[in-house]
Write a structure and sequence with these properties.
Elements: E1 2-8, H1 17-27, E2 29-35, H2 37-41, H3 46-56, E3 59-63, H4 76-96, E4 101-103, H5 115-136, E5 140-143, H6 156-163, E6 170-175, H7 185-191, E7 197-200, E8 202-203, E9 208-210, H8 220-228, E10 232-235, H9 245-256, H10 262-268
Parallel strand pairs: 1-2, 1-10, 2-3, 3-4, 4-5, 5-6, 6-7, 7-10
Antiparallel strand pairs: 8-9
Helix pairs in contact: 1-3, 4-5, 7-8
């Protein structure tokens, strides 16, 4: 088992929590990033998740809801509902004993003329969520988003502006598939003031989160750097059928390129005395 490697539960979207745990354990993963939506769509229960993952010895992080939400929306009602959904996820993470909660930043509602207004609302929303995180004892990890229309936080400069002054209860998740082809996930990581997690998948010109080696992104330097810094790496992907083909493709790539089990290798190399 490689403690530093987790898998996103969306790799087996239609699976039960036991099926997910069994597949991830067989693959040698050390934990699960569990998407909150699966509690609703797949009927997951808190006690069952804790029991199954505990028996399997798997770590747990939680991914808060992000679909249809916007924590800096121009619409106040939508903004409040989005914040309430994330607050419930932080409470859920506390009940589960999760290590942290991944959240998505907000988006621009109309156009770039509203950027500063949205950033101000984003700061206010993060202020509120940070207080909840501290109260519940569950860190938040704000995910860097892809560079496309409407997304607000797509580069280190904007992210650093949002999180630099915050407590240790707020970190950043870098997603390799969200980094434009003209930039490097490794350089992106190094430009951020704090990184708590690395989401790992590939991307093509037409699709995000394809299996590693099937797209255009060189993920290897970022993975090695994350391993050296003992940052959790989460294999990303979405399999609507709840099968494990995408997981298996990713594992094959990681092992073929010597990127799996790196902590154990580093631990075995004696240092100079």
């Amino acid at each position: 088992m490689s403690r530093g490697w987790y898998g996103s539960s969306t790799l087996l979207w239609g699976g039960t929590i036991r099926q997910i745990a069994d597949k991830f354990t067989a693959a040698g993963l050390g934990g699960v990033e569990l998407w909150t939506e699966q509690f609703r769509f797949s009927g997951f229960r808190i006690n069952a998740v804790k029991e199954v993952l505990g028996d399997a010895g798997l770590g747990l992080t939680l991914h808060a809801p992000s679909w249809d939400l916007n924590i800096c929306s121009l619409n106040e009602g939508l903004r409040e509902q989005s914040l309430a959904e994330i607050e419930r996820s932080v409470a859920l993470a506390a009940d589960l004993g999760a290590e942290d909660v991944t959240i998505h930043p907000g988006r621009i509602t109309v156009n770039e003329r509203w950027t500063e207004w949205h950033l101000e609302k984003m700061q206010q929303s993060l202020d509120r969520l940070e207080r909840v995180a501290i109260r519940e004892g569950i860190p938040l990890s704000v995910e860097m988003m892809e560079d496309r229309d409407g997304e607000l936080v797509t580069g280190p400069e904007t992210m650093n502006r949002l999180v630099r002054h915050r407590s240790p209860f707020v970190t950043v998740t870098v997603d390799t598939a969200h980094v434009p082809f003209s930039r490097s996930p490794f350089i992106e990581m190094n430009a951020l003031c704090r990184v708590g997690k690395l989401h790992v998948s590939d991307a093509t010109a037409n699709r995000f989160h394809v299996p590693l080696g099937k797209g255009k992104i060189d993920v290897k330097p970022a993975i090695r750097a994350a391993a050296e810094r003992k940052i959790i790496r989460v294999i990303e992907g979405f399999d609507y059928l709840g099968e494990s083909g995408m997981l298996e493709e990713n594992m094959e790539y990681l092992k073929k390129n010597g990127l799996f089990g790196m902590e154990e290798i580093m631990h075995e190399i004696p240092g100079d005395e």
